[in-house]
Design brief:
The structure is a homodimer.
Chain A (H helix, E strand, L loop, with lengths): L1 H14 L6 H11 L7 H11 L5 H13 L3 E5 L5 E5 L8 E5 L5 E4 L2 H13 L3 E12 L7 H4 L1
Parallel strand pairs in A: 3-5
Antiparallel strand pairs in A: 1-2, 3-4
The structure holds a DNA duplex.
DNA sequence: GTCAGTGCAAAGGTTTTGCAATTTA
DNA sequence: TAAATTGCAAAACCTTTGCACTGAC
């Protein structure tokens, strides 16, 4: 499972003219093993269990990289500290756009909205477990019957 | 409208052994007149139009007070800066937070989400006409039956 | 050999705090 | 007068960056 993420990371690194490093592998390994939101400091101390010389800057740089390649999500809650979360994403976590004319359903995922939903839930003291969001409208498909009206 | 908020603030101040101050009234007045999220710096510069000697520290302290008494909401988005929002929620459109334990429904409004929804619809060539969003989770109410499980 | 990655320390940006002076009740 | 509030500057945070060095390709 964590293996899979590491492979994705390696692929990203290889395909983007980057180089691998021992420190990054350690940090990523630690991160992918985390269940919950983690802070930079938490990652740093866990990483230092495996290599005591890893610097905070490297953790920041690694997490930035993981965010860029979609393997980590950054969250800003009220603490002022950034929390990082493994972005498994594939739990059926998509939302829907529905055309009122032809019934076509488009699935989409939007990290920003997911993030905001968490923020909203938190502000109301909720522990979020699920959500549904549906957007209704008229699609742009020329074959859609709705277009005949226009 | 803004008047109402100011009264609430004064009540809170009076009931909590605090004292009033010209600066705080100015900052609160400016804040309650804001439609959108505002930063400390925006509040500061608007407040300084009325009293050029108001300090940033006072703005921070005032906004902290307003948050504590429920008149302002702090938001931490990706910018790293804290945004403050008047917590009225009376703009008509709202979405729902639903407690899976006690069925409690909390209404909320979020301009950013509304905005993102339009952006997403546009990206997919949809003309948005309506939407629904529901967040499901467990509320923080101690009287909520779900808490017995824990 | 070249260029990305690292560690360190310094710099940046935002928010909080200590303190003397001021203002309110 | 006692206590809260203020402005200022310093301190405290979190995060990013410059630089010389190391390590991967």
């Amino acid at each position: 499972m964590s293996e899979n993420f590491i492979e994705q990371l390696r692929g990203y690194v290889a395909n983007n003219g980057l180089k691998s490093s021992r420190q990054r592998e350690i940090i990523a390994g630690v991160f992918f093993g985390c269940e919950e939101h983690v802070t930079i400091d938490q990652l740093l101390s866990k990483a230092r269990e495996k290599d005591s010389k890893i610097s905070q800057a490297t953790v920041y740089r690694t997490m930035k990289l993981l965010s860029e390649c979609g393997l980590a999500k950054m969250r800003h809650f009220q603490s002022g500290q950034t929390l990082y979360e493994v972005s498994d994403g594939e739990k059926g976590h998509h939302d829907h756009l529905i055309c009122l004319d032809c019934g076509k359903i488009v699935e989409f995922v939007n990290a920003k909205i997911e993030e905001l939903q968490h923020t909203i839930a938190e502000e109301h003291g909720f522990e979020l477990t699920d959500h549904r969001m549906e957007l209704y409208g008229h699609c742009a498909d020329t074959k859609c019957p709705g277009k005949e009206r226009a």
